[in-house]
Amino acid sequence: MEKSANEDVSRLSNDRASSDLEEQTQLDTKAPVNETQSKEALLIVVGGFCALFVSFGWVNATGFFEAYYQHDLFPTYSPSTITWISSIGFAFLYLFSFPMGILIRRIGCRPVLLVGSILHVLGLITMSFSTQYYQLVLSQGICSGLGSSAIFYAGVTTVSQWFAKRQAFAIGISASGSSLGGMIFPAMVTELMPRIGFGWTVRATTLVIVVLLLIANLVVKDFPQPSPPAAPTRSAPQGNAAAEDVKQPTLAGIVIDAFKSKLFILTTLAGVLFSFGYFVTLILLVTVATIRGVPNPVYTLVILNAASFPGRIIPGALADKFGRYNTMCIMTFISAVFTLALYLPTQDSGAFIAYCVLFGFTSASMVFLSPTLVYQISKPYEVGVRIGILYSLVSFSALFGAPIGGALLPEITKGLGPSSNYTEPGRWLILFCGLCQALGCVIFVWTRWAVAGCKMVRV
Fold first, then answer.
1. What is the domain-level CATH number for residue 216?
2. What is the dihedral of CA 418, 419, 420, 424, to 10 degrees?
3. How many structural domains is the chain composed of?
4. Residue 27 DSSP class
5. In Å, how far from its chain's centre is CA 17?
6. Membrane spanning segments where (predicted)?
7. What residues contact 167, with CB distance under 8 A and at least 6 apart?
8. Among 222, 167, 220, which residue's Cα sits nearest to residue 53?
9. Residues 326-380: pLDDT tens digits?
10. Domain extent at residue 388
């Protein structure tokens, strides 16, 4: 394993003409543009912010609807059944990252963003008229989820293209849009639903999404990328190795190389494991808060997303300064500790709110630092496909995590409310979340060790 990982690092260092270990594991610091002066690059960040606000920010807020569906719309359905609606939306957000990566590689970000915008808005409009379970699965889960995937991936990719030297920080700023969306949408729904009902509440949030999508579609554009290596006009040098160097890389070749890379496999495995604990916590937070008697439980999701706002930006800045793998290891470790040491045993509302703040801040880095980790261990033309593979595999944790978590909540099989049969409601669910986060952290540490060993370097 260590030998293969070192070969990955050596391959990257040869491509980037670097001999120092720290430089081997860092992405090429030659920025595509003058990032401090380019107004165009700043507009790209604004567009990415809007794209993530309406895609990941919306999906982050759908945990509120879990409680509404369970209590008002489908009181006879089990929690595990209810969670499939939001789980499909989360899963589609990631599952289609790989085909989205292929589309962006071939036709660019703007067309993908436009089609995603149409699908997302169409899904939300049909959601507002839905009254049956299957209708919500089709509208909120599939149609809106597919559109969100296109919007999300186009937003992340375009920022990655335009920034290199301060890429993690730029992605962190645009990613903070998802946190703001996760704050505003639940607050809107909480205030509007008792007054105007479910349908008009969803339409009101859709109007906000339409305005932000218009901004994103106006400012998002692709950065002119250098062509991948191609055969020169002169005769190719003799020898198999030389011939391979001048071949144009194919999609199949990029995919095969990705699964030959030990660093990429470890990074992906760590992301998938941590995501199981992350998504289950996010989707079922309001439900757990309700059965534990937390006042105004919907605001726990607002608080968590509010805390994730600086959690997107600050770790991004730290990652650029101290190393992306170093930052990821620290943040995932703290998240797992808070889940097992604070969320699991607490019965106090104040401690529950404290957990929302701490977990919101520390866990936010996982989703949006992951692309920068892939960028760091990949060649430039491999990045889009590899990020797509990573997110597609993460989709399985989003799809199956919440139903598993719902099955671990027997306290609410007959509706929401504090349980009299359990002294620690949701303890098995929370233990599952904490252990998944801890395992993900362990694999991130293993990957960091595979890259740089025990050396205290920026990696």
1. 1.20.1250.20
2. -100
3. 1
4. -
5. 32
6. 41-61, 81-104, 111-130, 136-156, 168-188, 200-220, 263-286, 298-318, 325-346, 352-375, 387-408, 428-451
7. 27, 159, 160, 320, 372, 375
8. 220
9. 999 999 999 999 999 999 888 788 999 999 999 999 998 887 788 889 988 988 7
10. 2-30+38-224+252-452
